[in-house]
Amino acid sequence: MSHDVYSLPPNLPVPEDDGAADHLTGMELPDIVLESSMGPVNVRDFDVVYVYPRSGKPGVPLIPGWDETPGARGCTPQSCAFRDLHPELGVPVAGLSVQPLEDQLEFAERNHMPFPVISDPERKLGAALGLPIFEIAGFTLYKRITLVAQDARIVKVFYPVFPPDANAGDVLAWLQSR
Q1: DSSP code for 167
Q2: Cα gap 63→1, rounded to integer Å
Q3: Structural domain boundaries of the chain?
Q4: By CB distance 3.0 to 4.6 Å, which of 93, 98, 134, 161 could disulfide with 144?
Q5: At residue 120, what are phi and psi to the nearest 5 degrees?
C-alpha cells in the first residue's frame, strides 16, 4: 500500500505525556560526536535538537502498526517544517534519529535539509540523557521529542510532540517569547 510521507493522515492517535522526559530540563547536552548528513557533528553545538523515530521514504511500506502507534507517524512533515522555518529560528538546528547514516544522507538530499540530520543507531544520545524510546516490529526507536538548549544546557523540552508538523512553529514561538 502506497502512502504519502509528506502529509499526515486524519485521526492519528495522540501520544500521551508518560513523564519520560520530566528529568531533562536543566540537563547538559553530552559531548557526543555523531555522523550526520553534513559530516561528524557534536550534539552540544546545537540549540535545537529535534529527535524523531524514523523518516519515511516514498515507495517504501510503513512498518506494520506505524499509523496506529501514538507519536510514530509524521517525521518527514516535522523535518520539512523545521527546514522551512530554519531561517526564522536563527539558532543551530539538527534532526536526529536512530536511522543509519545512509538513510539520513538520502533523506537530507531528497528534502534539501539546510542543517545536519544526525544518525544515532547506537542510541548514544538516548543513553546519555535517558531519552524516551519505544519498540515496534523489532525496532527500538526514539519517541518524538525536541530539546532546546542554551550554552549546551537544556532549557525547554517539547514532549510529547503532536502534531509533528506544528513542532517547528511551536519552537519558533517559544524562542521568540524569550
Answers
A1: H
A2: 11
A3: 33-177
A4: 161
A5: -130, 60
- State the residue for C-alpha cell 547538559: 28
Residue-wise DSSP of 2-48: ---TTSPPTTPPPPP--STTTT-TTPBPP--EE-BBTB-EEGGG-SE
CATH 3.40.30.10 corresponds to the domain 33-177? yes
Of 111, 102, 117, 113, the closest CA to residue 52 belongs to 117
CA dist 46 → 4, 74, 148, 149 (Å): 30, 22, 8, 7
